[in-house]
Amino acid sequence: MNFSNFLFMEQEIGLVILFVFLFLYDTFCSEKGKQYFQGVAVSLFAAFTVYGFFPLLTGEAFGGMYVSSKLTIFMKNILNVATLIVFLQSNNWLASKETVHRRGEFFTITLVTLLGMYLMISAGNFMMLYIGMETASLPLACLAAFNKYREKSAEAGVKYVLISAFSSGIMLFGLSFLYGGLGSFYFADMAAHLTGSPLVILGFVFFFGGLGFKLSLVPFHLWTADVYEGAPTSVTAYLSVVSKGAAAFALIFALYKVFGPIEVVWHHILWWLSVITITLGNLFAIRQKDIKRFFAFSSISQAGYILLGIIAGTAQGMTATVFYVLVYLFSNLAAFGVIAAVEHYSKGDTRIAAFNGLYKSNPVLAFVMMLAVFSLGGIPPFAGFFSKFLIFMAAADQGQWILVFIALLNTVVSLYYYLLIIKAMFITEGEANAVGRFRTDNYNKVSLWICTIGIFVVGILSVIYEYIGTISFGI
Amino acid sequence: MAYSLLIIVTPFILFLVLGLLGMKMKPVIAGIIGTLGMAFCAILAYTVAYQYFFGIGKTNGEWLTQIPLNFEWLRFTENLHIDLGILLDPISVMMLVVITTVSLMVHIYSLGYMKGETGFQRYFAFLSLFSFSMLGLVIATNIFQMYIFWELVGVSSYSLIGFYYTKPSAVAASKKAFIVTRFADLGFLIGILILSYYTKTFDFGLLTADHAGLVTTSMAGGTFMGLSIATWAMALIFMGGAGKSAMFPLHIWLPDAMEGPTPVSALIHAATMVVAGVYLVARLFPVYSFAAPDVLEMIAFIGAFTALFAAVIAITQTDIKRVLAFSTISQIAYMLAALGVSGYGDHEGLGYMASMFHLFTHAFFKALLFLGAGSVIHAVHSNEMDHMGNLHKYMKITSWTFFIACLAIAGIWPFSGFFSKDEILAAAFHHNPIVFWTLWIVAGLTAFYMFRLYFRIFWNGKREYNEHHKPHESPWAMALPLIILAVFSVFSGLIPFADFISSDNIPFHTHIDWTVAGMSIAVAVIGIGIAFALYFKDSKQPAKIAQSLGIFYKAALHKFYLDEIWMWVTKTVIFRYICEPIKWFDRHIIDGSMDGLAWTTQKVSTSIKGLQSGQVQFYAWVFVAGSILIAVLVLFI
Among A209, A213, A412, whose Cβ lies nearest the Cβ of B597? Predict the structure, then answer.
C-alpha cells in the first residue's frame, strides 16, 4: 500500500487528529481543566478551518476511491465554516447543567459526522459515499437525542435513527441494483457504461431516495420537522445547514459525474421534486407556531431551490448551487444563532410568539434576525438575493422558464411567512412573561457577527462566485 | 495608482463608522473624524492629480486614460458585464480634486455651522456617504457603475436635504428632489439599456473610442418615430443628466432642496451633485458629438434657455438661498450650453474645455457663496433679504469673501469666473449666435442679481439690529473655509486649462478673445452698476420698477408657475389618466392574483396538515411509496 495516498487527505487527517485530541482531553483532563474545553475546542477548530483555505494537494487517491479537487476542498471549507459557527453558538446550551459534563461528546461526535461528510464529498466510489453517509448519519442521531432527558429530544433521536437506517437500507438496495447493472462502484467506470436500462434507473431512484432523505426532499422529508423541533437548537442548525449542504454536494457530484448520461431521467425527477419540495415546504411553513418547526419547513423549501441549480446540469448550475449553499449557511445560521439565544434566555420557549416584541427588548438580535430572514427570502441587497438570482439564472439559461416561474411564485409565499417573524419581532407587543433584555454570550456574538458580515458581503463580493465558477464543471 | 481606490473607500468606511458607532461618540469627535477622513481623501486626490497631470498622464502629447483598477462584478453575457473600477482621465481627476476640496471645506465649515444640532453624527455620516457616492460616480469606468453611484448620490442627497426630518417642508423638499431626479433617471436607465443593447458594452472606453465608432456602426440605420436610435438613446441618457443638473423643466427640485442645512447646499447644489449631468455629457462627449449631434444641439438650446430662465427668476427672489439656487441652475445651464455648442478636437472643442473650466471655477465660488450665505443666516437667523442689510459692519470676513465670489461669478477680470465664462462665450460666439446672445444677456443678469444680493445683505441702509442680538462674525471653523475658497475663487482662473482638458485629450492653445471678453465685462459692469444704483442704498425704486413690470414680475417671482404646472400635470394628467388605470390593474389583477395565491396557499396548507402526523411508521411508508411512485413514473411515462 502506498501511504503517500494519505497526503491527499490532509483535511480528513486533520479532523481525525483534532477528534483524537479532543477525545483525550475530554476523557483524561480534570474537571478544572475542562472549563476551558469550549474555548480550546472552538479555537482549534477555527485554526483547522483557516488551514483549509491554504492551498492543499489535489488529485485522486486509492485508485480513484477518494478524490480531492479544489472544488471538494472549497465545499469542505464551507462545511467547516458552518460547523465553526454552530460550535460558537452551542456555548450557552452546552454550559447548562444538563449538558456541561457531556460537552466533549458534542464536539467529538460532531467532528465524526463531519468526517463522514468529507468522505461523502470526496467519494469517487459508491462504497465510499455510502460509508461516508453512514458515518455522517448515525452519530447525528446521538446528537439529536443529546438532551436525552427531554422527551422531544429523545423522540427526535429515535425518529432520526429509524428513518436514517431505513433510508440507508433503501440506498443500499439501489446501489446493489446499480452494481448489478454496471458491475462497478467506481464513478468513472460506471459513467462509462451507464445506460438507461430499467435496472439502472430503479437503482438510481432508490439511491436518490437515500440522499433525498439527507436533503429532506419531499417525499423523504417527513422526519425533518419532528427532528428539528426536538433536537437541541445547535444540532438543528447543524442538521439544517451542514448535513444538508454535504448531501447537496454529494448529490451534485453523483449526478454530474456518474449519472450524466441519463440526464433525461433525473432531469424530470428533479424537476418535479423541486417544485413539490419548494411548494410543500412553503405550505407547511405558513402554519407553524414553533420557530424550529418553522425553520424545518423553510429549510425543506430551500432544499428545493438547491435542486433548481442542480437541474441546470451546467458548470453555471454547479457554481450557483455551491454559492447558494454558502449563502444559505450564513443566513440560516444567523437565524439559528438568534433562536439559540432567545431560547436560552426564555427557558426553552421556542414558539414564534416568544419573539414578540424582541425589537423592544433586544434590538440588535432582532436586527440580525431580520437580516437573516430577508436574506433567506431573497431580498436585495443581501446575499440571499444574489444566490437566488444566480440559481434562477442558471435554470433559466437552460430554458427552465416554467420552473423558475413556479419558484418565483413560491418566493412570494415564502416572503409572507418570513415576514411573520419580522412582524412578531417588530410589531406585535411582547407577552407579559416575554424574555427581557439580555446580553448574548461572546461566542454567540462572534458567530452572529460572522453571519452578518457574510449576509452583507458574500453577495456583493463577486470574487467568491467567480472563484467557484473557475473550479466548477458541468456534465 | 491603485491607491486611488482609497479615495472612495475612505469615505465609505467613514460612513460605516460614523453611521454605526457615531451615536456612541461625542458629536465633536464624530465631526473631527469625518473631517480628518475627508482631508485624507483630499490629500490623496491631490496626489493623484499631481501624479496624473505631471507624471504618467501624458504620452506623446496626449492625455491617456488610466485604469488602475477594474474587476468584473456581474456577468450577463460574454460581452455584457458590469465592471467596477477606477478610471482616471483629465476630467475625472479634475472632478476628484473639486469634490474632495469642496467636501473638505464643507466638513470644516459644518463643524461650526452644525454645532449643537441634534443628529450631528448622522449629519457627518451622510456627508461621508454622499462624498463616497459622488467620488464613485466620477471614477466610474462604465456607464452602469456610473448609474449605480448616480442613484447612490440621489439617495444620499435625499437624506441630507431631509436632514431636519421633523420639519415638514424639509421632508417635502427631500421627497421632491428624490422623485424628480428619480423620474429623470428612468430616462437615463432606458437610455443605458438601449445603448448597451446595441453596442453590447457598458464600457466608456469602448463607447467613446474611434469617434464613437462602435455606437454609430451598431446603431446604424435604426430609427424610431423619425429619429435615429442613437438620438433616442443619447437624449434619454441626457434626461438623467438634466434631472440631476436641474435643467428646465426638471429644475423644480433644486430651489426647494435649499431646505437642507446650508453647508449641504454648498456641497450638493454647488459643486457636486448638480454638475453630475454636465459630467455625464462630458464623459460621453464623443458619442454625443459624432453619434447624436442633434441631441447636442438640443442640449445647447436647453442650456441657453434654462440659463436665461433661471437668471430672470433669480432677480426676483428674496430668500437668499433661493437666489443662489437659481443662480446655480443658471450657471450649470451655462456649462451645458457650452458643451452643446462644442465641436470635437483642437480649437473646435473649445466649448468642451470651457464647460469643464467653468465647472471647476464655479464649484469654488458657488460653494463660497453658499457658505457665505450660511454664515449670514447663522448671524441673523433668517433667509430673507428683508431681515438683512448693513451687515458689512458686523461681518467683515464674510462680506469680503462674498464680494470676491460675486465678482468671480459676474465674470470680472481677473477673477476666476471671468476666464471660464469668457471661454464659454467665445465658444458660443463662433458656433451659435442665438446661444451666444442669450448667454451674453444672462451674463449681465447674473452680475445684476448677484450684486443685488450682495448689496442687500451687506449694505443697503442703516438697519439697526437689536442690542441683544447683534450679528457677529462666524467662528473660525466657518470663516477659514470662506477664506480658502476665496483664494481659490480668485486664482483658479489662472490655470491654463486647455493644456489639461480638451475634447480629444490633446492639449491646445487658447487666448482671450478680447472682443468677446470686452462685451462680457461690459455687460457685467452694467449689471453691477444698475444693482449699485438700485440697492446700495435703501430706496423705493426697486419696488416701483417691480410694480411697473406688473404681471411679468409676478410671474418671475412665482418661478413662472412651473411648480404649479407640474402639479397640474402630475395630479390631473398623470394621476388621473395613468395612475388610476394602473391602480385598478394593481388592485384587481395583481393584488387579486396574489390574494388568490395566498388564499389557495392557506386552503391547501390546512388541508394537507394531516400528512405531518408524527408517526414514524407513516413516514417510512411515505418514503417507500414515494420512491416506488417515482420509479414507476420514470419507467412507464
Answer: A412
Cell digits for B82? 458590469
| Pick from A259, A321, A316, A314: nearest CA to A74 | A321
Q: Which of A205, A218, A287 sits opposite B634 (nearest CB)?
A: A205
Measured between CA atoms, how close is B196 to chain A, in angstroms?
20
Q: How confident is the model at residue B181 (pLDDT cuts 50, 70, 90)?
A: confident
pLDDT band at B320 (very low <50, low <70, confident <90, very high): confident
User: What average pLDDT does the segment B148-169 reach?
Assistant: 87
Higher pLDDT, residue B168 or A328: A328
Residue contact A282–B601, C-beta within 8 A: yes
Query: Which tens digits make up the pLDDT trace of A342-366?
Result: 888 888 888 888 888 888 888 889 9
Chain B residues with beta carbon closer than 8 angstroms to that of A273: 630
pLDDT digits (tens, 9 = 90+) for A332-343: 999 999 999 988
The answer to whether residue B443 scores a pLDDT higher than 80 is: yes
The DSSP H or E segment spanning B68 is: strand B66-75
Task: With a cut of 80, say whether residue A404 has pLDDT above it.
Answer: yes
Helix (H) or strand (E) holding B245: none
Residue B468, pLDDT > 70, answer: no
Q: In the Cβ-directed half-sphere of B215, how many Cα atoms lie within 13 Å?
A: 33
What whole-number distance in Å separates Cα of residue A233 and Cα of residue A292? 8
> Is residue B615 less than 8 Å (CB to CB) from chain A?
no
Q: How many CB atoms lie within 10 A of CB A399?
A: 10
- Four-point Cα dihedral A129, A130, A132, A134, nearest 10: 160
Greater model confidence, A199 or B559: A199
ipTM confidence: 0.86
Tell if the CB–CB gap between B620 and A198 is shorter than 8 Å. no
pTM for the whole structure: 0.71
Between chains, do A205 and B612 touch, taking CB under 8 Å as contact? no
Pairwise CB contact (< 8 Å): B623 & A283: no
Alpha helix (H) residue ranges in B271-387: 276-283, 285-286, 293-316, 320-341, 350-380
Element (DSSP H or E) covering residue A90: none
Q: Do A286 and B605 touch (CB under 8 A)?
A: yes
CB-CB neighbors (< 8 A) of A416 in chain B: 598, 601
Contact B205, B189 (CB under 8 A): no
A276 Cβ partners below 8 Å, 6+ apart?
A218, A219, A304
B2: contact with A, CB 8 A cutoff: no
